C-alpha cells in the first residue's frame, strides 16, 4: 500500500506595506538576517540609488524606459508611483516561488498592496505601523536626504496610509525591529488569510 501523502500548507503570498519612514526596509533586512530561509521579492524602481544600496539586493534600479517595457509586457505583478518615482514587483520570480509551493514576501507601497489584493484574493496583507505619529515624523525628518517640501509630502501621504491600516489583515507595530521581524515571519507561515481574520493571532 502506498504511503499516505503528506499535506503541506499552500504557498503563501504575504505583502508588507506601511507609511514611508516606518522602517519596512529595516524590518525586511532583519528578517533576512534572522530567517535566511524566507524568500523576499526584490522590487524594481526608477528612483536613484541611495548610499549603501546594492542593485539586485535592495532594488532592481531601472530606467523609465525599462520600467515602461515591463509594464507593456505584463512583467510586473503590481506597480505604483510614489513621491515621483515608480516601484513594481517583477512577476516571474514570485510566480516561480509560489509554483514551487514556497511562501513569498513582498515589501511594497499601499497602491501596490491594493493591486495585489485585487489580483490575488488569498494574499495576506500585513501593515507595518510606527509606535506613534511623533515617532514617524522624527524618523522622516532624521533621514536628511530630502528637502523639506518632499518630507512634508511624505508626511501627508503617510497620514493617508495610516488611515488605510484597516484594509490589512494584520497590523505589526515596529517598536522593536527584531520583535517585528519575528512577528512578521510568524504571520508568513500562519495558516490562511481567512483564518487569520477570525482568530486575530497566529497559533
TrEMBL record:
Catalyzed chemical reaction(s): GMP + ATP = GDP + ADP
EC number of the protein: 2.7.4.8
Keyword Cytoplasm among record annotations: yes
Binding locations of ATP: 18-25
Gene3D superfamilies according to UniProt: Guanylate Kinase phosphate binding domain (3.30.63.10), P-loop containing nucleotide triphosphate hydrolases (3.40.50.300)
Listed GO CC annotations: cytosol
Example GO molecular function: GMP kinase activity
Coiled-coil zones: none
Subcellular location: Cytoplasm
Domain Guanylate kinase-like: 11-189
Keyword list, A-Z: ATP-binding, Cytoplasm, Kinase, Nucleotide-binding, Transferase
Family: Belongs to the guanylate kinase family.
Function: Essential for recycling GMP and indirectly, cGMP.
Full protein name: Guanylate kinase
Species of the source: Geodermatophilus obscurus (strain ATCC 25078 / DSM 43160 / JCM 3152 / CCUG 61914 / KCC A-0152 / KCTC 9177 / NBRC 13315 / NRRL B-3577 / G-20)
Amino acid at each position: 500500500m502506498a504511503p499516505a501523502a503528506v499535506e503541506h500548507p499552500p504557498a503563501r503570498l504575504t505583502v508588507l506595506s506601511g507609511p514611508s519612514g516606518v522602517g519596512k526596509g529595516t524590518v525586511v533586512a532583519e528578517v533576512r538576517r534572522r530567517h535566511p530561509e524566507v524568500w523576499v521579492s526584490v522590487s524594481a524602481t526608477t528612483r536613484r540609488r541611495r548610499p549603501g544600496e546594492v542593485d539586485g539586493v535592495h532594488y532592481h534600479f531601472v530606467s523609465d524606459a525599462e520600467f515602461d517595457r515591463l509594464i507593456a509586457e505584463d512583467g510586473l505583478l503590481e506597480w505604483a508611483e510614489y513621491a515621483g518615482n515608480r516601484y513594481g514587483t517583477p512577476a516571474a520570480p514570485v510566480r516561480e516561488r509560489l509554483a514551487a509551493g514556497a511562501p513569498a514576501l513582498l515589501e511594497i507601497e499601499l497602491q501596490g498592496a491594493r493591486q495585489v489584493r485585487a489580483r490575488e484574493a488569498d494574499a495576506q496583507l500585513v501593515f507595518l505601523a510606527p509606535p506613534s505619529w511623533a515617532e514617524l515624523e522624527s524618523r522622516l525628518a532624521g533621514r536628511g536626504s530630502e528637502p523639506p517640501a518632499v518630507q512634508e509630502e511624505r508626511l501627508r501621504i503617510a497620514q493617508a496610509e495610516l488611515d488605510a491600516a484597516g484594509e490589512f489583515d494584520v497590523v505589526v507595530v515596529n517598536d522593536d525591529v527584531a520583535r517585528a521581524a519575528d512577528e512578521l515571519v510568524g504571520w508568513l507561515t500562519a495558516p490562511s488569510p481567512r483564518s487569520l481574520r477570525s482568530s486575530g493571532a497566529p497559533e
